[in-house]
């Protein structure tokens, strides 16, 4: 089965991988999640909370419950920040690609005279 993958430059590439139906479904879900700001922010926040809980518990000797309460505040704020940052990045990236596309159709920008 050939799958279409989008590389880091936004170009589609065909990848010949033997995939089961389950793997193909998981691949599609992960590919869609990687393009969603809210999904990335939630995954990042969840991982950050788990890491912060572990570090607080190990360093202070607090129970996981106490460490979890402490660890929820800072990563939650970071998750909101990550969401905002990713949204800004996505808008900026779209604006750059639109400007690149329109720059090619404008003779004045290319330095030629009409």
Tell me briefly what this model is.
This protein is mainly alpha-helical.
Number of strands: 2
Mean pLDDT across all amino acids: 76
The coarse silhouette is: flat
Q: Largest sheet, if any?
A: 2 strands, antiparallel
Oligomer: single chain
- Major beta sheet, strand line-up: 1-2
Count of separate DSSP helical elements: 3
Radius of gyration, CA atoms, in whole angstroms: 22 Å
Low-confidence stretches: none
Strand percentage lies at: 5-15%
* Helix fraction bin: 55-70%
Order of helices and strands: EEHHH
Secondary-structure-derived class: mainly alpha
Termini separation (Å)? 50 Å
Description:
With 114 residues, the chain is mainly alpha-helical. The chain has a domain of 66 residues. 68% of the residues lie in helices and 9% in strands. Strands 1-2 form a two-stranded antiparallel sheet. The protein is flat.
Fold blueprint:
Layout: E1 2-6, E2 12-16, H1 21-33, H2 37-60, H3 64-103
Helix pairs in contact: 2-3
How would you describe this structure in keywords?
single chain; 3 helices; two-stranded antiparallel ribbon; 114 residues; mainly alpha; flat
